Amino acid sequence: MPPAVTRPPTLPPDPGAYVRPPIPIWVIGAGLMGLGLLLFLARVEPAGQGFFPRCWVYETIGIQCPGCGATRAVHALLNGEIERALRLNALFVSLLPLLVWWGVRGLRGWWTGRWWRDPFTHPIGLSTLAGLAVGFSLARNFSF
Fold first, then answer.
1. Are residues 88 and 72 in contact, defined by beta-carbon separation less than 8 angstroms?
2. In whole angstroms, how far apart are CA 69 and each of 11, 13, 15, 110, 134?
3. pTM to 2 decimals?
C-alpha cells in the first residue's frame, strides 16, 4: 500500500497583511473617458469651437484666470508644440509633472498600501500653490 499523501498545513491569512481593494468600475470608466477626451483634444483645436467651455471669469470681468488657456495648452502639448503651450499657460504646463507625481503616488498607494507623503496637504504647500496661481494671474493680466 502506498504511503498517504500529506499536505502541508495551510496558514490562516496574516491579519496585518495589506489586501489590495479591487478597482471600482467607475474608475475604469473615468480613465477610458479621459483617454478618449485626450484623443479628441489632440485632433480638434479648442480655439473657436462652441462646444468647449469658456472661462466664466474672463467672460464676466475680462481678466484671465490662472487656468485660462489650459485646454489650448493641452492641445498644443499633445501635438508637440511645447513653446506654444508655454505661451498659452506656463503655470499649467509647469505643474504637469506635479499632476503626474500625484497620479503615480495614488497608484503606488493603491498597489502597495504604502503612501508617499503629500507635501501639498500641508498648509505651507497649499499656500505655495495658491501664491503661484495668484502671482501668475497678476503677472499675465497686469504686466508690471
1. yes
2. 58, 52, 50, 32, 16
3. 0.76
